[in-house]
Design a protein that fits this description.
This protein is of the alpha+beta class. Among the domains are: 4-124 and 238-257, Thiolase/Chalcone synthase (Peroxisomal Thiolase, Chain A, domain 1); 266-381, 3-Layer(aba) Sandwich (Peroxisomal Thiolase, Chain A, domain 1). It is 35% helix and 19% strand. It is built from 12 helices and 12 strands. The strands form 2 sheets. Strands 1, 2, 3, 4, 5, 8, 9, 10, 11 and 12 form a 10-stranded mixed beta sheet that branches. β6 and β7 form a beta hairpin. α3 (91-105) crosses α12, α5 (156-167) crosses α10 (310-320) and α9 (282-293) runs parallel beside α10 (310-320). It is globular. The two termini are 18 Å apart.
Length: 382
């Protein structure tokens, strides 16, 4: 099977709900990283064979195939098509998978994998009418779903709480983890670890959500999302704005366009998991990826696992036996934000640059996804 190489990766800074990027149209947000990706790699954009873009809330400013509108908004050639995909929070990680699969199959040589989400402009839940207990009018679940899972609440928030109950995590455990995320992210910002991967926009050159002065005392003062729950805003990912883009190339494209391979796609895995718990998928997805790769978790030098909620990572660490020091070493979504459809590409961009910064070899990325799913990707720096 042919190899697929990452030859470029760039992201916007991740903005907050009320920050510098809140009024940037989603298509222009995506256009910014697409244009920057082409400039940084030096590839002829007309040679790109497809643009695969993840986006979760495909309504309003994010409708009508934003992959296509973002590419055209960037002033890039009309001959290049685009397709928008939704695997919930893992949408742009799945975009990387689809791009890699196209290259590895030999059907395409140069494919862009991207993601975008402006959660300030298109709020989470915009595509589904929401009531206090979740989606209303039986949407998106019909009679067949009800026969299988009943009428219980299905939400990421309840899933996070169910994980706390199953694994025995208390609020203090979650807050300790969240504090570490902010501390690691603050150190990364101070040392400029993200500078190479970020394309500044609207005067913003660093991720906005990090709170270097937060404390356990401040976190303890917040009310839980629901009475009796362990979950608070402090231990949850932030509502964010951002975009990401990567260029994947075949060996032939690398030679033809004089590109520099930075990492090869080593292993791809995706799996389903309990949709009620919803957020446990990274555990079996990681196990599947490691089994396919022939590697052990000890062989992995850096892991990026999305911090949708603190218990997601804590349960993964407990079940996989991973080293916490090698997991989200520069902080995660609790500190840096989670712009839904863009996050998969953001994490892959962070992972690639961290491998390069440290000279490490293997990186693993995984993230939980709505419906009870997860992707896992292993890359090898070259």
């Amino acid at each position: 099977m042919a190899e697929a190489y990452i030859v470029g990766a760039v992201r916007t800074p991740v903005g907050t709900k009320k920050g510098a990027l809140k009024d940037v149209h989603s298509a222009d947000l995506g256009a910014h990283v697409l244009k920057e990706l082409m400039n940084r790699t030096g590839v002829d954009p007309a040679a790109v064979e497809d643009v695969i873009m993840g986006c979760v809330m495909q309504v309003g400013a994010q409708t009508l195939d934003i992959a296509r509108t973002a590419w055209l908004s960037a002033g890039l050639p009309e001959n290049v098509p685009g397709v928008t995909i939704d695997r919930q929070c893992g949408s742009s990680q799945q975009a990387v998978h689809f791009a890699a699969q196209a290259v590895m199959s030999g059907t395409q040589d140069l494919v862009v994998a991207a993601g975008v989400e402006n959660m300030a402009m298109v709020p989470m839940g915009s595509s589904v009418p929401m009531g206090p207990e979740g989606p209303t009018a039986g949407l998106p679940w019909g009679p067949g779903w009800g026969e299988r899972y009943g009428q219980q609440e299905i939400s990421q928030f309840r899933g996070a709480q169910l994980m706390c109950e199953k694994w025995g995590f208390k609020r203090a455990d979650l807050e300790e983890f969240a504090l570490t995320s902010h501390q690691r992210a603050a150190k990364a910002l101070e040392n400029g670890y993200f500078d190479r991967e970020i394309a500044p926009l609207n005067g913003l050159a660093q991720d906005e959500g990090v709170r270097p002065d937060t404390t356990l005392e401040k976190m303890a003062s917040l009310k839980p999302l629901r009475e009796g729950w362990e979950i608070t805003a402090a231990v949850s990912s932030q509502i964010s704005v951002g975009a990401s883009a990567l260029l994947l190339a075949s060996e032939e494209a690398v030679k033809r366009h004089n590109l520099t391979p930075r990492a090869r796609i080593h292993t791809l895995a995706v799996c389903g998991s309990d949709p009620v718990y919803m957020l446990t998928g990274p555990i079996p997805a990681t196990e599947k990826a490691l089994a396919k790769s022939g590697l052990s978790i000890d062989d992995i030098d850096v892991t990026e696992i999305n911090e949708a909620f603190a218990p997601v990572v804590l349960a993964w660490l407990k079940e996989i036996g991973a080293d916490p020091a090698k997991t989200n070493p520069n902080g995660g979504a609790i500190a840096l934000g989670h712009p839904l459809g863009a996050t998969g590409g953001v994490l892959m961009t962070k992972l690639l640059h961290e491998l390069e910064r440290t000279g490490a070899r293997y990186g693993l990325q995984t993230m939980c996804e709505g419906g009870g799913q997860a992707n896992a990707t292993i890359i090898e720096r070259v």
